[in-house]
Every structure is written in structure tokens, then in C-alpha cells.
Specification:
The complex is a heterotrimer of chains A (243), B (501) and C (369). Chain A is built from 3 helices and 11 strands. Chain A is α/β, with parallel strands linked by helices and 243 residues long. Classes of the chains: A alpha/beta (243), B alpha/beta (501), C alpha+beta (369).
Chain lengths: 243, 501, 369
């Protein structure tokens, strides 16, 4: 036994799938799920390191509230990947849907291609917890909305950035963007700067991880131009109220 | 004749705090306070006090408190102090009781019986701070449909003039002469800053303010004061004033004392003469006459500006409004029972007209029944006190609202109802050159702009709560309203269901 | 339909529901059976709650292609008699039969289901006047007749729907026996009604169908605007305003579908100045004139009619839609997994932007058979 369990989950309801996953989690280091078609909440209630390989298209809320496992999706993912995730890693060999890493407070998410609306919305950080999201292609509107912490890196490897309201309401964390973006695409709470030496280190580390996962050339990506988007204010709405 | 009127207010002065600086003497335009040289003390004549609080606010040591005078009449639900005192006044003068501001009677305020909806679970509320929230409204006549050039995506339809306002709140008619030039300038600057419009009222526009034309509604009233080609050209919207909510069926009377040099030049009448606005427009005795004036104004400005027609809300407003739309009005302005004024006979102000909520609901419903609602925008006035009132008005069917009393309050008005005296201690409703300096147009514009900004933010919060991100999705959306404590008949007129249903 | 109050006793203005959507079209016009569609919509079982499922099929009745195919549900035999008299008085009934069904676990208390293939008296040349005539009669039955409801009224198409999960509805209506070049499907999750047969999706008027996921928060505004143009919203589902709006804009105002979708989900005012001048002029005019038809609130819809399938989401994309393409096949779905289940090797799959219409059209209209 190589410590790998393979389960064909075609037609299984998510409850059954996740029950089997919980059961198997104690005996194996790696579990391969075959023929996944839309089952939700995979990896949610597993609190130990475990490699879960998904073949097919996992359902919504993949890895939500997750605390420890690594999930590798061999294909596209849907909405809500890494929802309120605590720790662990999700690697998507394809694209992902909306609200990627919603309110994530730790862990890492790597998406080879693009993502949908509101990626990284309300990501937060506290003490040692700092969620990280890397997107290979680009994102749709409201990227980094309400962002309150963590690192969002968007590599722009496909089409040019067309997202609007990028970083709207951002009040913490940092968003690195490779490639052109125009002022009207940005939320009014966002400042733009050149990455400094520290930023370059973070970017380089993440780009190398990304390339390792997806078999790409880091030098070609690193030679591109990066921008750092940061919150202008800790309290963007400080003067909104009358008392 | 000895007056039998008791004082309405008492001035309480804390002798320990008063430093005899005479600030109150200078501030009071009604002569309440005077300095007694012999005693080195300030005296106050309570009977002259109108309760405007100017002295109290400006007293550097907070020594003055204005209190309502205790009414010592025997309690009587029928013969109220007001009824008694009105009779005393008329017995002593033999005149029509004149007053300022709006109806102060406890007619039901329907806004306070309507509650708004909010999203829970089935649709997300939208956070207006981070997500787009659109308040822009276009005023003007809309066609029934849009046509394209055959086989293309090119627009073929030519729309009648459309005027964008960035928030659905406009400043209602306040005529120069009734209010000071500084007030006009404050309104003009705030409207420009916020991307909305202010209304000149019926006294023309001082030439100094013509530069604010793109944010101006120029009123054309029965007196035609200050109406000339340049005035019509300057404005973004023209408004024919038929009536006013505070005094439906009544004309205006600006006393000669208020007709200063500048007012005279603006109104184009000799200095010191009374400026009289006839009760009707004497070229409009019928709906076809209204059409004639509407089209005269359109011809005079080469069809570049929407023409609004303003009426007081009266019993058959719905039928009148339908006629107005068919007469070519691009905007219908409705002014309700609680609309204010610089001067009106008290008996008219307090007894004539209908609440704006009812008039609005009836007009919107009628125009829809006739399939012509899109042919005119509806602006409502008369008693809009808060952003909640604005939102409820739009949900009932308005495109936008006019505010005037609220704007004056922003400038300092305390609704003391002395506008008709010309002695406004806050320097608002006066043309006295010294008193008018009390409104600094820079600061006045700031206060007004702040008010509109605050209300706009609140409107966005309410829209977001209801799960819509454009004000047009609220317009006429009575499903977002529910009634609390109204009769079946009232709910039927308002087109609103009871809360809980 | 007075029986509606029996079916929907709460009398809500609109029935709010969340849902699963699926649409599948062969743009070459080749007809196919229900298998993939049913499999796909069933795989999203958890998005619905068994209170409504339905399907629309285009290219369904080639043998009666010139007839309006009226699918009608009756709650009583008397209602059927009453409606048939009305039909005979106003139409030529070319053929009619009971809609074939089979007993299905979970399907309880089905209404009597009948279909009528009718021609407008004397002529069936398909003049625009015919559509208005049929529309009026359908409205008349649906608002006036006791216990009768027309749930499908187009040509060469049909709607099959009811209270149940989509897979139960498919089984009940024996959908595997039908073929079409365009199918849409819906699984419903109404929040506040017992789920009555007529309230299930697709919603239909003439040959327009709409399946809808979301809530239209602008419903009151949309509805009151449409009432000015003679549309009466009596179905207590917010979806019907979508169908009426499309009918008004597309059929009566003659606007192309690309323009219709710009009315329903228009660009934000702040984005219009970024467009080319000609589009600025058009989008500004559309928002000025049709502001009351903006569909506000979270939604995804799949709209279909003869030869065309359109997917559209609200302009800030609060509900999901995924597109799949494989050769001549176009797929629209709430979730990609449902598409992959029936077509694992897609040429392309992507997520459209909010307000971006996805339009599938028959390559050659006449080729549909």
C-alpha cells in the first residue's frame, strides 16, 4: 500500500463522500477522488495534513473552514473555494468561480488560470495567520473587495486585467498585480505603488511556488512589471458618520 | 388699543452667566433685548420674542434660554390658546392673519406611517460603501420606446431634453426678495457641487448668479418678475408656477420694504414698490392655455430645456396632472399641504390642499393607468424632512423631491414663522443688508452640501438594504413599502399594503 | 385563474426562489433527447427543494410547427369544458390530446394536463397580429377562468413543469420520448410557497421561456411599468416580468437581443463614458427610457425562444452562470460540474461577466426540423 486511497465518487451525495473522506483520513496520506461532479464541502471537516486529489469538478465551498489538508484539483473549481479557510492549501489546475477565499484567515490558494467575482473578499489576518492567494490569469470584478489582510497575487498571464472595483473597501493586506491596470478600474480606497524589496521577495517566493505547481517558467513571469495595491486608510469610512 | 395678547415666549437670563456683552441686543432683530445703561444690565421684553433662538445660540456664555410662555387659560380642547389669540389679533386689527413657513397643524403625516423593506437571505443586501450604488436620475419626457437605425446598433430615437441630477433631491423655489441673495448663492453653489438643481422661485435671478445656470430651474410665475430672454436661456430647466402648497389658489405679495435696489433690478420693477403676483396666471385660464405657455417657453428656448409645471396638491390633482402631461409638461411638480412660504394667509396655509403623499400616489397611479407616466417626471415638495421621506416618496412614485424648509433649517432657520416680517434674525428670509450678511454663502453652501451628501449616503444605505443598486429600481416600487396604522381607504389611495401582509 | 389562490394561499406578490438552471442547445439545429439535460439538472439536486421543476423544449412539435401548442393544466373537468369552449370559439383546434404522463413517486395531486394545437381562425400565416391575439386569449384564460392555466403557448415548442424535483417531473412527463434542438431546465427552491404547478419554471409566454435563479428586487417597478403596456402580472412569480419585458422589447419594440440585455442589465453610469461614442449614446438613451425595466437584485436567467438561447446575469453578478462549448453544442449552467457530467471534454468553458449576455443562435434558422 502506498498510503493512497482511490475512491470513485460518481453519483455519491456529498454527505456520503465527505463521510468516507473523514473515515479514510486517519489511515492514508493521500486520497484520490475520481469522477467528482459537483459534490460540495470537500475537505471541510478534516483537521490534519492530508493530500486530497480531485479528478473532475468539485462542487461549491471546496475546502471551506478547512484546517490543514492540501487539496489538488485536476480541473476547474466552482464558487466558494477556501471559504473562511483556516489553514492548508488548495491548488486548482484550471480556473475557479466566485468569492475565492472569502474571509480566509489562513492557508494558501493557488489557481492556475482565472477566477470569478469578488476573489479574496474580506480576507483577513491576525497575529501569525496570513492567508495567501495566487491567481495565474486574471480576476473578474471586485477583486480584493473589503480586503482586510493577507496577500493576493494576480499574475495576469492570460488576457489583460479587466476587473472593475479592484480593492474597493480595502483596509488591510496587500494586492500585487502583474500587468497593466487603469485608474478607473480601482476602488477609491486603493493606493498604487512600486513593490519595494520586501514585496519583491514575497512575489518571487510565490511565483516560484506557482511555477513549481503548474510547471511554468518563473523567470519569464518575474520579468514582468508588478504593481502593489495597498489600502490608503485603515479606516476608509472614518468620516462617514455624524454623532 | 391695548393688546390682550400674552407673550408667547419667556426669555430666561442667568444673571450669574450674563457678562453684559450686548451680543443678544445686536443679534435680536425683533428688539427683545435692550441695554439698561443706568443699571448696567440687559433687559428683555418677552412679548416681542418670536422664539427664533438666535440670541440663545449666539450668547457666548450660554446665559439665555428661551422657553414657551406658560398658557394660563382654562384647559379647553375646543378653544385652544391659538384659536383665542387669533381672534384677539383680528379683533385688534380687522385683518387677514398673515404667517410664514408651512402648515403646522397635526394632519396625519403619512411618511411616518410607511415603513421600508430590507433584504434577508433570499437576496443579498448590497453594501453601498464598496459596491456601486447609483442615484442618478434623468428629468424630462421619455418616449415610449427606443428605435435603432435599421440593422445597426445606432440610436435613431431623438430624446426630448434630459437633465441629469446626481441625487434625487432638488432645492425648491425660494424667491430672491423673499430670501436674501446670500441664500440664493448658497443654494446655487451647493446644487452645483452636488450635481443637482436649485429653483429661483418667482423673483428672477440676480445677474451675479447667472453663472450657475446649468444647475438652475428658472421659475416663470404669474408676476413674470425678472423673466426675460437671457433668464430663460441661462436656465437648465424652466418651471411654470401655477400654485404653491402653502397657499393653493392664492397669489404672492412681496412688500415694498423688501424690494431693495438689487431686488428691484432683478425683478425689473421700481425700488420700494410692492411686488404682486396675481393668484392665477392671467394667460392660463384652462388646460389648453397651459399648453400654449408651455410651448411658448419651448419655442423661446428652441426645445433645449424641459419645462416643468408646478401645482399645489389639491383634490383633483390626478386629473389635472394628466392634463398637464398632455399639455406638454415634461416635469410635474407637486407641492403638498405642508409646503412652506414666505407669507400666506394663515387660514389658507392651514386649511387648503391635500397631503403630498396622497397627491403623489394618486397622480402616479393615474398617469400609469393612462399609460403616460413615462412622459413626465414627477417632483414632489412640501414636507420632506429626511432621507427616509425621500426614499418613501420615490417608492410611492416620485422621480425626485424638492426641499426648501429643510434647506433653510440647514442655513439656520428655526421655523419661527416670521418670514413675512422681513426681520429674520438668521438673515435668511430678509433683504435687510445687515441681517442678510448673517448667511455667508461660502458657509451656507457648505452646510447645504453637507446635508445633501448626508441624505444621499443614507439613501444609498436604504437602497442597499432593499437589495437594489439603482434608484430607478425603487421608483414606484410600492412593494418596498408597508403601512402601519392606516385605514383601508388610505392604504388603497397609497397603493400600499399593511405591514405583515 | 382563481384556483391559483387555492394553490398559493398566501397571496404573496411574488414567490421568492433560489434554483438550479441548465440550458443546452445544438446550434446546427440537430434535435436530441432529454437524457443529458435531465442528468445535468438532477446533478444539481441540492439547489432545489422538490417544490418545482420544469423543462422547455424547442423544435418539439415539427408535425404541428405552424400551430400554437397550448399546454394547459386544469384543476377540474368543468374548467376543461369551459376552456375548450373558449378555445373552440376563438381558434381552430387542429389536434388535441392528454399530455402523456406516467405515475411517478413523489408526484402527488397532478392537475389534468392537456395539449391543444391551434390555429388562429382562418389563417395561420404567422402574422404579428396572431401573436397579440394569442397573448390576449392566454391572458384571458389565466386571469379569468376558474381552475385552468395555460403554461405553454408557443409554436413548435413546449413547457413541461410541475411540483417536484426536475428528475421527477422529467419522469412524470416521459420526456425521454421527446426531441428538441434547445432545452432549458429548472430546479426550484421556493422559500415561501407550497409550490404550485403553474408557479414552476420555465415561465412561458408565446414562444418565450425564462428560467430564473434569483430574486428581482425591482419587481414592483418592473411590474408597474409593464402594466402600462398591457401586461398583467398575476402569476405571483417575479420571473414573469422578465418574460414580459423581453416580449415588449424584442417583439413589440423590435430591439435586437443584444440591446434587450443592455436594458435588463445595463452598464453602470460610471462605465458608459468609457464606451465608444455610438454605444454611449445608445446606452444612455436605453437607461433613460427603460430605467423601469432594469432588473435589479441578484439573478441569472436563461431566456429562450425559437432558434435562440440567452444566458444573462445581473450586472454585479450575484448569481452564478457557467458556459460550456463543444462543437455545435452550447451549455449554460448554474454549475460547471453539471456540464462536465454530460460533456467531459468541452472545447471551452468560462464564466461570463455580470450583465454580459451569452447568446446561442441556430446557424440556419430554416434548418430546424
Amino acid at each position: 500500500m502506498d498510503g493512497t486511497l482511490r475512491i470513485d465518487v460518481k453519483g455519491l451525495h456529498y454527505k456520503e463522500l465527505n463521510a468516507r473522506l473523514r473515515e479514510a483520513a486517519n489511515g492514508y496520506h493521500r486520497i484520490d477522488l475520481l469522477n467528482v461532479f459537483g459534490q460540495r464541502y470537500i475537505g471541510t471537516d478534516i483537521r490534519r495534513p492530508l493530500e486530497i486529489h480531485i479528478y473532475g469538478v468539485p462542487g461549491n465551498d471546496l475546502g471551506s473552514f478547512m484546517d490543514g489538508p492540501s487539496i489538488i484539483v485536476h480541473g476547474n473549481a466552482q464558487d466558494g473555494v477556501g471559504n473562511t479557510m483556516n489553514s492548508g492549501e488548495v491548488i486548482v489546475h484550471g480556473h475557479a468561480g466566485d468569492i475565492l477565499a472569502l474571509s480566509a484567515r489562513g492557508g494558501r490558494v493557488f489557481v492556475r488560470d482565472g477566477v470569478g467575482y469578488r476573489a479574496g473578499i474580506h480576507m483577513k489576518e491576525y497575529q501569525g495567520k496570513r492567508p495567501t492567494v495566487v491567481i495565474g490569469d486574471t480576476a473578474q470584478d471586485f477583486l480584493g473587495e473589503y480586503m482586510g489582510g493577507g496577500v493576493l497575487l494576480v499574475l495576469g498571464l492570460g488576457e489583460r486585467h479587466h476587473a472593475r472595483f479592484v480593492g474597493t473597501g480595502m483596509h488591510g493586506g496587500v494586492l500585487y498585480l502583474r500587468g497593466e491596470v487603469e485608474a478607473h478600474q480601482l476602488g477609491k480606497e486603493v493606493g498604487v505603488a512600486q513593490p519595494d524589496e520586501n514585496d519583491r521577495k514575497v512575489i518571487e517566493g510565490l511565483v516560484r511556488d506557482y511555477c513549481r505547481y503548474f510547471g511554468k517558467d518563473p523567470e519569464a513571469i518575474l520579468s514582468g512589471e508588478f504593481r502593489k495595491l495597498f489600502p490608503l486608510h485603515l479606516r476608509p469610512y472614518g468620516n462617514l458618520y455624524a454623532y | 388699543m391695548k393688546t390682550y395678547l400674552p407673550p408667547r415666549f419667556v426669555v430666561e437670563r442667568d444673571p450669574d452667566r450674563c457678562i453684559t456683552c450686548k451680543g443678544c441686543v445686536a443679534q435680536c432683530s425683533f428688539g427683545v433685548h435692550s441695554y439698561d445703561r443706568e443699571e448696567d444690565a440687559i433687559r428683555s421684553q418677552d412679548e416681542l420674542c418670536v422664539g427664533c433662538h438666535r440670541c440663545a445660540i449666539f450668547c457666548p456664555t450660554g446665559a439665555i434660554r428661551i422657553k414657551r410662555a406658560p398658557q394660563d387659560y382654562r384647559p379647553n380642547a375646543n378653544w385652544t390658546p391659538e384659536a383665542i389669540e387669533d381672534i384677539i389679533k383680528q379683533a385688534e386689527t380687522g385683518g387677514i392673519l398673515l404667517t410664514g413657513m408651512g402648515n403646522d397643524k397635526p394632519y396625519r403625516i403619512y411618511w411616518d406611517h410607511l415603513v421600508l423593506n430590507a433584504s434577508q437571505v433570499t437576496n443579498p443586501s448590497i453594501d453601498p460603501l464598496r459596491e456601486p450604488m447609483e442615484l442618478r436620475t434623468y428629468l424630462g419626457r421619455k418616449p415610449d420606446r427606443v428605435e435603432l437605425e435599421t440593422g445597426t446598433l445606432k440610436l435613431k430615437t431623438r430624446l426630448a431634453p434630459q437633465v441629469a441630477i446626481e441625487t434625487p433631491i432638488l432645492f425648491s423655489a425660494l424667491s430672491y426678495g423673499a430670501v436674501s441673495l446670500n441664500v440664493h448663492e448658497s443654494l446655487a453653489r451647493a446644487a452645483t457641487e452636488l450635481g443637482t438643481l436649485f429653483n429661483t422661485g418667482e423673483g428672477g435671478l440676480h445677474s451675479k448668479l447667472y453663472k450657475y445656470g446649468p444647475n438652475t430651474i428658472a421659475q416663470v410665475a404669474s408676476g413674470r418678475f425678472g423673466v426675460h430672454p437671457a433668464y430663460l436661456q441661462m436656465a437648465r430647466v424652466l418651471e411654470i408656477k401655477i400654485g404653491q402648497g402653502a397657499k393653493p389658489g392664492i397669489g404672492g405679495h412681496l412688500p415694498g420694504e423688501k424690494v431693495s435696489e438689487d431686488v428691484a433690478a432683478t425683478r425689473m420693477i421700481p425700488r420700494g414698490t410692492d411686488a404682486l403676483s396675481p393668484a392665477p396666471q392671467h394667460d392660463i385660464y384652462s388646460i389648453e392655455d397651459l399648453a400654449q405657455l408651455v410651448h411658448a417657453l419651448k419655442e423661446a428656448t428652441n426645445y433645449t430645456k424641459p419645462v416643468s409645471v408646478k401645482i399645489a396638491a389639491v383634490h383633483n390633482s390626478a386629473a389635472i396632472a394628466s392634463g398637464m402631461v398632455r399639455a406638454g409638461a415634461d416635469i410635474i411638480a407637486l407641492d403638498g399641504l405642508r409646503g412652506a412660504t414666505g407669507a400666506a394667509p394663515k387660514v389658507i396655509r392651514d386649511n387648503v390642499g391635500i397631503p403630498i403623499e396622497m397627491a403623489l400616489a394618486a397622480v402616479d397611479t393615474r398617469l400609469r393607468q393612462e399609460g403616460i407616466r413615462q412622459q413626465a417626471s414627477i417632483i414632489v415638495a412640501g414636507g420632506i424632512r429626511s432621507s427616509a421621506d425621500v426614499v418613501k416618496a420615490i417608492a410611492l412614485g416620485a422621480d425626485a423631491v424638492y426641499i426648501a424648509t429643510a434647506a433653510l433649517i440647514a442655513l439656520g432657520c428655526t421655523v419661527c414663522q416670521q418670514c413675512h416680517t422681513g426681520k429674520c434674525a438668521w438673515g435668511i428670509c430678509t433683504t435687510d443688508p445687515i441681517l442678510s450678511k448673517r448667511v455667508n454663502p461660502e458657509i451656507g453652501a457648505r452646510r447645504l452640501a453637507n446635508l445633501l451628501r448626508a441624505w444621499s449616503l443614507e439613501i444609498k444605505e436604504m437602497l442597499g438594504g432593499m437589495g437594489v443598486n439603482a434608484i430607478e429600481s425603487l421608483r414606484g416600487n410600492r412593494l418596498h413599502l408597508r403601512a402601519v396604522g392606516l385605514t383601508t381607504e388610505e392604504m388603497e389611495v397609497l397603493g400600499v399594503r399593511p405591514a405583515g401582509s | 385563474m382563481k384556483g391559483m389562490s387555492y394553490n398559493n394561499p398566501y397571496g404573496d406578490d411574488k414567490v421568492i426562489s433560489a434554483c438550479s438552471l441548465f440550458g443546452m442547445m445544438d446550434t446546427s439545429g440537430r434535435r436530441f433527447s432529454s437524457g443529458d439535460v435531465v442528468a445535468a439538472i438532477s446533478s444539481m439536486h441540492d439547489r432545489s427543494n422538490g417544490l418545482g421543476g420544469g423543462f422547455a423544449v424547442y423544435g418539439l412539435y415539427p408535425e404541428y410547427a405552424q400551430c400554437y401548442a397550448l399546454h394547459i393544466m386544469f384543476l377540474s373537468r368543468e374548467a376543461r369544458g369551459e376552456v375548450e369552449a373558449l378555445l373552440r370559439a376563438n381558434f381552430r383546434i387542429v389536434f388535441d390530446e392528454e399530455v402523456p404522463t406516467r405515475e411517478t413517486p413523489g408526484i402527488v395531486d397532478p392537475p389534468i394536463l392537456w395539449r391543444y394545437f391551434v390555429e388562429v381562425n382562418g389563417c395561420s400565416l404567422g402574422t404579428p397580429g396572431d401573436d397579440d391575439y394569442v397573448l390576449e386569449k392566454v391572458m384571458k384564460i389565466n386571469t379569468g377562468c376558474e381552475d385552468a392555466f395555460v403554461f405553454s403557448s408557443g409554436k413548435n415548442m413546449g413547457v413541461f413543469k410541475g411540483a417536484g424535483y426536475p428528475e421527477q417531473i422529467a419522469n412524470y412527463f416521459r420526456l425521454e420520448e421527446y426531441q428538441g434542438y434547445l432545452w432549458t431546465a429548472h430546479g426550484r427552491f421556493p422559500t415561501n410557497s407550497p409550490g404550485w404547478w403553474g408557479g414552476a419554471h420555465p415561465f412561458n409566454i408565446l414562444d418565450w421561456t425564462v428560467v430564473h435563479n434569483g430574486e428581482i428586487s425591482s419587481y414592483g417597478t418592473n411590474r408597474r411599468y409593464l402594466e402600462m403596456f398591457g401586461y398583467h402580472c398575476t402569476m405571483q412569480t417575479d420571473t414573469e416580468v422578465v418574460a414580459y419585458a423581453v416580449d415588449l422589447l424584442r417583439r413589440r419594440h423590435g430591439l435586437p437581443m443584444e440591446v434587450v440585455t443592455r436594458v435588463l442589465a445595463p452598464p453602470l453610469w460610471e462605465h458608459i463614458p468609457l464606451l465608444p461614442p455610438e454605444e454611449q449614446a445608445l446606452d444612455t438613451a436605453l437607461r433613460q427610457v427603460y430605467s423601469s425595466l432594469l432588473l435589479n437584485g441578484p439573478f441569472t436567467v436563461i431566456i429562450a425562444h425559437q432558434g435562440e438561447m440567452i444566458g444573462l446575469t445581473d450586472r454585479i453578478r450575484l448569481r452564478p452562470l457557467t458556459v460550456g462549448e463543444k462543437g455545435d453544442r452550447l451549455y449554460l449552467s448554474s454549475e460547471e460540474s453539471a456540464i462536465r457530467l454530460v460533456c467531459p471534454d468541452l472545447d471551452r468553458t468560462y464564466i461570463p461577466r455580470g450583465g454580459e449576455p451569452i447568446i446561442g443562435r441556430l446557424a440556419v434558422q430554416a434548418g430546424v426540423r
